[in-house]
Amino acid sequence: MLVGRQSRLRETSPKRPVRLGDRREENRIHTVMRVAMVRREHDVGLWRVRNISDGGMMMTTQVQVVPGERLTINLSEMIAIEGRAIWWDGTRCGVAFARPVDCAALLEDLVAEQKAPRYRPPRLPVATRAIAYCDNGLHTVRIFNLSQHGAGFVHDGCFRAGMAVKLRFDSGEEHRGVIRWSDDGRAGLYLVEPIACARLESANRL
C-alpha cells in the first residue's frame, strides 16, 4: 500500500483492456540512486534504492533480510510504500509492492519534494549518546536522529548556530560538522563529510 499519495496507485478495471503499450510501461524499470528509510518488525535503517518499477524495487543492504518479511519503505517524509522482501543475496534485496504504483509519476513527486525549501532527506530515528567537542569544551549529547549528512541531538543549551562541532561515538567513529540550528536544548548538525549509507542500514547496530 502506498501511504500518503493514494492518487499515484495504479487503478485497474475490467472495462479497460491492457494494450501492449500499457504492458511495456508497467514493466519498465527506472534506475535510481536514492536513500530510503526502511521499517521492519524489529529494526529500522537507511537502505539505498537501486531501481524501481510499478511492481517492486531492488535495494542495497548488507543487513540480513528474510524472504517474505514485511517492509515499509519511506521514500520521503510524505511517501511510504508497503511491500514484502522476495529475495536477499547478501548485498541486495528484492521487494514486491503490496499494490502496484505508477513509479514514473512517483519519481516526479519525489523530485518535486526535493526541490521544496523545507525538504529533508530520510532520517534514521536513534537513541544513542556521543561526546561533542566544541569551543566550550566537551559535552555528552543524546543523538535522536541521523542521516548521511546530519544529526539531531539534545544538549545542555551551550550549542548555537554556526559552531563547529566534532561528534565522537562509543564505536570510536568521529564526525565533524557545523550547527545549523539550535533551539530549546535541541540542535541540528550538518556533517562536513557524509556518513556511509552502509553504516546506517540498521539502527540496532549503532
Summarize, please.
The chain has about 210 residues and is mainly β. The chain contains two helices and 13 strands. A hairpin with a 2-residue loop joins strand 12 and strand 13 (about 185-190).
CATH class of the largest domain: Mainly Beta
CATH architecture name of the largest domain: Beta Barrel
How large is the share of residues in beta strands?
over 45%
CATH topology of the largest domain: Thrombin, subunit H
Verbal overview:
It is a single chain. This protein is 10% helix and 46% strand. By secondary structure, it is mainly β. A six-stranded antiparallel beta barrel has the order 2-3-4-7-6-5. A six-stranded antiparallel barrel has the order 8-9-10-13-12-11. A hairpin with a 3-residue loop joins strand 9 (137-146) and strand 10.
Properties at a glance:
Thrombin, subunit H; 2 domains; 206 residues; elongated; 2 helices; six-stranded antiparallel barrel; mainly beta; six-stranded antiparallel β-barrel
SSE blueprint and pairings:
Layout: E1 2-3, H1 20-27, E2 30-39, E3 44-52, E4 56-60, E5 70-74, E6 80-88, E7 92-97, H2 103-115, E8 124-134, E9 137-146, E10 150-154, E11 164-169, E12 174-183, E13 186-191
Antiparallel strand pairs: 1-6, 2-3, 2-5, 3-4, 4-7, 5-6, 6-7, 8-9, 8-11, 9-10, 10-13, 11-12, 12-13
